[in-house]
Amino acid sequence: MKIFAISDLHLSINSDKPMNIFGPVWDGYLDKIKNSWNRVQDDDVVLIAGDHSWAMKMADALPDLDYISNLGKGHKVIIKGNHDYWWSSISALRRELPLKMYALQNDAVKIGDYIFCGSRGWTVPELTHKTPDDEKIYKREVIRMELSLQDAKRLQTNNEKIIVLTHYPPFNSKIEDSDFTKLFEKYNIETVVYGHLHSYDKKQQIITHKNNVKYYLTSCDLIGNELIEIK
User: Distance between alpha carbon 54 and the CA centroid of its chain, in Å?
Assistant: First the structure.
């Protein structure tokens, strides 16, 4: 069983919103992703850390979710991104998901010898929060992240590995400690997958090691539009 990851596909299967308006890195990107998916086997897992669809309503996002489901083999685990406005009710979403696709929202799911958990997250401030609303959302997302970690620990009956998904980077541009990173260390998490950042920021590192935690940045345009294997 192998674990792969990618994020920020920004699909619009039934509408005209091409991603290559953001640069040539997006030319043919879906074909590249599909080709790289050939490495995935039935029992493998692909983690997709948010921003799946440009849709505004659930009904309009379903073709995009079906597209992801049909990209290739394996279990697919998704989490909400900041552009996933269509994602409102988790219970309604789970009723619509294709087979072998799982949606996380402040909770966890066990697949084989792994447990996957997480929440959307929020922007980690460089010095202080931009607005009181930012601080309020940040604190709320920290609580939600801990709920997901607690649920993962509840499911951990045989020392299964726990992998965290979040959409926003769990630290600021200086890779400083945050309430999110402190939680991961508190719960002895070794691997975190996130997205949100794109190729226009050339300073980004795909893999960051911090305090015995390995962080994977998986935005598709930053990783060459190919699934990366989580080691």
Answer: 16
What are the residue ranges spanned by the domains of the chain? 3-229
Burial class (CB in 10 A: 0-12, 13-18, 19+), 175: middle
Angle between helix axes 132-155 and 179-186 (nearest 10 degrees) is 10
Has this prediction a pTM greater than 0.90? yes
Q: Report the C-alpha gap between 205 and 58 in whole angstroms.
A: 33
Per-residue model confidence as pLDDT tens digits over 72-106: 999 999 999 999 999 999 999 999 999 999 999 99
- Tell me the fold of 3-229: Purple Acid Phosphatase; chain A, domain 2 (3.60.21)
Structure tokens at 33: 């992703």
Q: Give the Cα separation of 180 and 208 in Å (integer).
A: 15
Residues contacting residue 150 through CB under 8 Å, at least 6 positions apart: none
